[in-house]
Amino acid sequence: MIREDDPQFRITPIQQMASACSGALITSLFMTPLDVVKIRLQAQQKALLSNKCYLYCNGLMEHLCPCGETAWIPRRVHFHGTFDAFYKIAKLEGVPALWSGLSPTLVLALPCTVVYFVSYEQLRFKTKTLYNKWTDTVHQPMWIPLFAGATARTIAVTTFSPLELIRTKMQSKKLTYSEITTALRQVIKYEGYRGLFRGLGSTLLRDVPFSGIYWTTFETTKRIFNKPDSEKNSFLFNFFCGSVAGSIAAFITLPFDVVKTHQQIELGEKEIYTDGKIQQRASNMQNIVKNIYSNHGFKGLFTGLLPRIFKVAPACAIMIATFEYGKQFFQKYNTQKYKESLQRHQEIVIIGNHKNNDYS
């Protein structure tokens, strides 16, 4: 039986990249509407929490937005839930609005997924190799995927944090690319380039534990069912394990997702005080959590749970099932190439022996 981590048949980083890209592309195309609805619901909650006047700069003009509705801004559309948000966004803004931010999502998802999955595979393999060498064993303890997943996610999230900031803003409000450019310039003007990493702390608090919980739960689920190797490597079984692991990890880390969204949709906003001075909004995670809890209670930290679960569970399932399927495909390809190479080598040796016998 061929072992997955056998160096002779192990897939290359380029093959790992190809396996990850297909899942990322499919996930981005089909799951973006659910992400749009989730962020709209969380953005609506943030608007309800605002108890001071502020100036919103969207790139075309400045809208004075005091508490409540005024003639300065169009009447806000209130969403009463996930399905109501789907209906109102499609009816009032058009169906394509459900895919707002798809371009930066694709730009973000493909390279970020490649960095994440390739880093995970390389870290997991190298850590397992060192562990097996030190302990003289061949098994993989549970802390290895937890460590590799958390570290790989830290690398990917930090690298692509500015793109995540743009994607979140485009989905929380319907903005053009010129408006996004203006907002980014304002962030750099008031906060410097570190402002492009707004929300990175809460994103790391959400994604790093998510990744560790996800990979640990995924491997645990596979062990609990204790399927034969042929069934463990099937697309449907990996799809099931991925959806279970993704749902559990998404539920546990949802409060961090809520805080992250509240921080990042402040992109381009400035606060107006009673003395007329304008100052950039400075919210930290602790204050955001206190405001959400005081206005909505503990359940406020789990706003958007249904669309997040509906997105994360199938997204994780598609990603891991496609990635594992791609790994198996390339592993079989590498195995076949190895056998063909070995067969050619044996044929060359046989021919060489025949020639030596003829000369003798």
UniProtKB/TrEMBL annotation:
GO CC, any one term: mitochondrial inner membrane
Positions in coiled-coil regions: none
Solcar repeats: 11-126, 140-224, 233-329
Keywords per UniProt: Membrane, Mitochondrion, Mitochondrion inner membrane, Repeat, Transmembrane, Transmembrane helix, Transport
InterPro entries, alphabetized: MCP_dom_sf, MCP_transmembrane, Mtm1-like
TM annotation in the entry: 97-118, 235-256
Pfam families: Mito_carr
Localisation: Mitochondrion inner membrane
Domain of life: Eukaryota
GO-annotated biological processes: mitochondrial transmembrane transport
Keyword Repeat: yes
Membrane topology: Multi-pass membrane protein
Family according to the record: Belongs to the mitochondrial carrier (TC 2.A.29) family.
Protein name: Solute carrier family 25 member 40
Species this protein is from: Papilio machaon (Old World swallowtail butterfly)
